Amino acid sequence: MKHKVAGIVLIIGSLYYIIAEAISATFFKASLTNTYIFHTISELGIPNGNSPLFWLMNSAFILIGLTLIFGYFYKFKDNIIKNKMVCSILALITALGVIIVGLIHGGNPLTSGYHTLGAVMAILGGNILIVLISRSINDFGFYQKITLVLGIFGVIVFWIMFFNIESIYMPVFERLSVYTLIIWSFLTGVCLFGEKF
After folding, report:
1. In degrees rounded to 5, what are phi and psi of residue 187?
2. CB under 8 Å, gap of 24 or more: what pairs does 49-58 form?
3. Is the pTM of this model over 0.85?
4. What pLDDT does 156 receive?
5. What is the full DSSP assignment across the chain?
6. Residues 145-172 pLDDT 10s
7. What would the pLDDT profile of 16-32 be if each residue is shown by its tens digit?
8. What's the CA gap between 25 and 39, in Å, rounded?
9. What's the rounded Cα separation, in Å, for the pair 170 and 177?
10. What is the pLDDT of residues 81-112, one digit of tens each?
């Protein structure tokens, strides 16, 4: 039963994030295509005239962080056979990072440093976490291989973004490195619900 509960929570959190971002982007003061290509996810959460649904995007940040904490510590951690403490610490860092992003908005010089710290904790910490998870579960099967690929891809794209922060396409790199975590969360939820571990 714990498998299914944790799985449902992770699935709902992942889907809510994708849907909330899509809706927020639809109402952003730019075309949908331009929003996804030229505007960061964080911009969708800034409470100003450009993003009338900023509260929806911020709720998605907070919810995905809470679902990660719940899903990981309620059941998923039982599948970790190596590096348990490191994985647990990274899971907390990732979840707290994304919650910080939802609570402290970008664009404000007084708080942007905290927002950026939260983003790094969430994106880099999260992708390192899933790489480590892929090497910390006993059977290196389909789930672990997909997790490893997602994590490595996410880390690489994060560093591309980091060294191209002034690029007009930086938001694309940002989304790619974030979506690896959302895909992993959804996949993990499906596997937990189906008791595939």
Report:
1. -60, -45
2. 51/24, 51/27, 52/27, 53/23, 53/24, 53/27, 54/24, 54/105, 56/20, 56/23, 56/24, 57/20, 57/21, 57/24, 58/102, 58/103, 58/105
3. yes
4. 98
5. -HHHHHHHHHHHHHHHHHHHHHHHHHTSSS-HHHHHHHS-HHHHTS-STT-TTHHHHHHHHHHHHHHHHHHHHHTGGGG--SSHHHHHHHHHHHHHHHHHHHHS-SS-TTTHHHHHHHHHHHHHHHHHHHHHHHTTSS--SHHHHHHHHHHHHHHHHHHHHHTTTTSTTHHHHHHHHHHHHHHHHHHHHHHHHTT--
6. 999 999 999 999 999 999 999 999 999 9
7. 999 999 999 999 999 99
8. 9
9. 11
10. 999 999 999 999 999 999 999 999 988 888 88
Q: Do the beta carbons of residue 19 and residue 12 sit within 8 Å? A: no
190: which 2 tokens?
């499906």
CA 42 – CA 60 distance, rounded (Å): 11
